[in-house]
Amino acid sequence: MIVQACINGARSADFHPRLPLDPDAMARDGAACVAAGAAELHVHARGPDGHESLAPAAMDATVLALRRACPGTLIGVSTGAWIENDDERTLVAIASWHELPDYASVNLSETAAPLVMESLRQRGIGIEAGLASIADAERLVSLDHGGRVLRILIEISEQTLDEAFTVSDGIETVLEHAGIRRSILLHGENATMWPFVERAAGRNWSTRVGLEDGKALPDGTMASGNAALTSAAAAILRAGR
In whole angstroms, what is the distance from residue 184 CA to residue 162 CA? Predict the structure, then answer.
């Protein structure tokens, strides 16, 4: 039961004045999040143009900076298909990384997910299986990857709370029926970020917060940055124990 800080995601620079978009900024921000209670960090590396990138030059510099700033902290990255917008480029990039993250998120909704998972496994990188729908959960079960991943990431994008809870419950049911017993990290985004932190606390699951998922604190005010979001989530998990 941990808080993972997702410090930037695919957000653009105008989303928040303290959105970290280069390796040094990510390292400083990551260290502040760890001090605020984050056990892990999830980042989207950026190229010189500020756009997301899986290229070794961007990924290696980012992971190395975070390792130096946050020794002993698990570092995770995204493999979202939109980043390289080409499945072959994604696979070539993963095979070319020198500074390896501890784990990488893979969206089961994406066509190349099985190939990406196998590429990560061959490199010794843990897999965070991203499930955003009941169909994603069913696909994970059908691929027989449920027992071979580091963690299940239930990530809900629906913004109406009833709809979001329905999807989350459906994913949980599929996993239970399949007998998949992996640790779960549950999170929402924007309007549902804090309700899902509360839900994770009630289920003794891990959760994540950060500017990737939203910029508002539980009281609706804008957070000063990722560390403030992390601190608020850590307090909720502590209260739920």
Answer: 21
- Report the CATH number at residue 226: 3.20.20.70
CB 188, CB 195: distance < 8 Å: yes
Tokens representing 198 are 């509360």
Model pLDDT for residues 141-170, shown as the tens digit of each residue:
998 756 789 999 999 999 999 999 999 999
pTM above the 0.85 mark? yes
User: Which H or E run contains 136?
Assistant: helix 134-142
Contact 22, 225 (CB under 8 A): no
Supply the range of the domain harboring residue 154. 3-240
Query: What is the Rg, in whole angstroms, of the alpha carbon atoms belonging to the chain?
Result: 17
Measured torsion, CA atoms of residues 98, 99, 105, 110, in degrees rounded to the nearest 10: -20
Beta strands in 67-162 (DSSP E): 74-78, 103-107, 126-131, 151-155
The residue written with tokens 């390796």 in the block is: 23
Residue 146 is predicted with a pLDDT of 65
Residue of 134, 135, 171, 186 whose CA lies nearest to 2 = 186
Q: How many domains does the chain have?
A: 1
DSSP 157-202: ---SHHHHHHHHHHHHHHHHHHT----EEEE--GGGHHHHHHHHHH
